[in-house]
Amino acid sequence: MVQGIVKLFIKNYEDIQSEEVRKRYGFLSSIIGIILNLLLFALKYGMGVLSGSVSIISDAFNNLADSGSCVLTLFGYKMAAKPADKDHPFGHGRMEYLISLSVAAIIMVVGFELLKTSVQKIITPEKITFSYIVLGSLLLSIAVKFWLSYFNKSLGKRIHSTVMIATATDSANDVIATLATVVALVASLFTKLPVDGIMGCVVSIFILASGYGMIKDTVDLLLGKPADKEIIDQLKAILHESSITMGLHDIIIHSYGPGVTFGSVHVEVDSLGDIMSIHDAIDELEKKVYEQLHVILTVHMDPVEADNQKLNEAKVMLGEILSQIDESLSFHDLRIVAGPTHTNLIFDIVVPFQSKLSEDKIKEALNRKLAEKETVYYAVVNIDREFT
C-alpha cells in the first residue's frame, strides 16, 4: 500500500538523492499526517467530552500537537530542499535535524502537560462514563496511528530521513497512549480507583522518555556521529577494487544533512608506480564513489615502498608489539631512517576511542618493548584517531 501511494504522488520516486524528490516525500508524509491527526483530534475530543475522560482529551490534544508538528515538518522539508547558496555552500540539508528537534520539543511539552493533568486527576478523580461508541472510536484511532507509524517509518528508511523516523516514533507513542486510555475506560466499569489519572501518568512518562531519546539522537547527528558501518564497508570495497590500492587509512566521512556527504581517505600506492596513471586511477575512484554512494570523496595518495625488506620486517615487528599492548591499536605511514647508532621508526598509531590506555602509556609501552630488540630503535610517533 505504501509503495502504491508513493508511486501515485511522487514522480521519479526512486531518485532519493534528489532534493526535489526528498521534498515531495516530505510533503506527502506531512499532508497525510495533518489530515489524519486533525480527524483524530476531532474524534477523540468529542469522545473525551462525552465520557469525561482526561486521558482521552489529553490524547486528543496530543493529536492536535502532531498536526502542528506536521505543519512544521512541511516547512522544514521546503527549507531543506533549497539549493546551496553563498551563505550556505553545503546546502540546507541540516534543516531536517532542526525540525526533528522541534518535533521532539513539542512531544516533551505535550508529555509534561499530560503528566500535570494526570496527577491532578489522581488527586481529584472524576467519574468516567463508559460507552461502546467511545471504545470503538479509540480502537479505530489505534489502527489509524499504527498505520501512520508504519507509513512514516517506511518512508523514513527509504530516504534516510530523521524527521520521518521521529514522526513514526511519535505515532507509535500515540498507539501506546491510546491503548492506555482504553485500559482506563474499561477499568472504569470495575473500579472506582483513579485509573484514568494513573494511566495518564504512565503514558506521559513514556512520551517524555521518547522525546528525550529523539532529542539525544538528533543532537548526536548535529554534533557529528560516525558514518554508518554499511557506508564505510561499501566505500572500502570500492577502493580495494582498484589495482593501485595497497592499503587504506584516515577515512573521514562528514555529513551536512541527508544527501550531502563529504569524505576523505588516504590510499597507499606503490612509490615506484607511474604518477600520472595513479592520478588517473584516483580520479576514477572518486567518480565511482560518488556515483554509487553519493559521497564527495577526496583521495590522498600515500606512496609506500613495496619491496623494502627492512621496512616490511619493521611492519611485522610493530604489528606484533602493538597487538601485545592493545589488540585494538593499528598503525600506518611507517618510514625508516637508519643511522650509525640507531634507527628512527616514524609512523602514526591509530587509537580507537574505546581504548582505555592514554597516549603516554601507549608510547611508554612501545618504547619499553622496542628497547628489548637488538637494534636500537627510536620511535617518532603521532597519535591518530579513528573517525569511522
Distance between the termini: 37 Å
- As laid out across the biggest beta sheet, the strand order is 1-2-3
CATH architecture assignment of the largest domain: Up-down Bundle
Main beta-sheet strand count, sense and barrel state: 3 strands, mixed
Mean pLDDT: 85
Question: Are there runs of 5+ residues with pLDDT below 50, and where?
Answer: none
Secondary structure layout:
Layout: H1 2-9, H2 19-51, H3 54-80, H4 95-123, H5 132-159, H6 162-187, H7 195-223, H8 229-240, E1 247-255, E2 261-270, H9 275-293, E3 295-304, H10 309-325, E4 330-338, E5 343-351, H11 359-370, E6 377-385
Parallel strand pairs: 2-3, 5-6
Antiparallel strand pairs: 1-2, 4-5
Helix pairs in contact: 2-3, 2-5, 3-4, 3-6, 4-6, 4-7, 5-6, 6-7, 8-9
Describe what this molecule looks like in 3D.
- The chain has 11 helices and 6 strands.
- The chain folds into 3 domains: 2-223, Alpha-lytic protease prodomain-like, CATH 1.20.1510; 229-304, Alpha-Beta Plaits (2-Layer Sandwich), CATH 3.30.70.1350; 309-385, Alpha-Beta Plaits (2-Layer Sandwich).
- Strand 4 (330-338) and strand 5 form a beta hairpin.
- It has 388 residues and is α/β, with parallel strands linked by helices.
- Strands 1-2-3 form a 3-stranded mixed beta sheet, covered by helices on one side. The protein has a 3-stranded mixed beta sheet with strand order 4-5-6, with helices on one face.
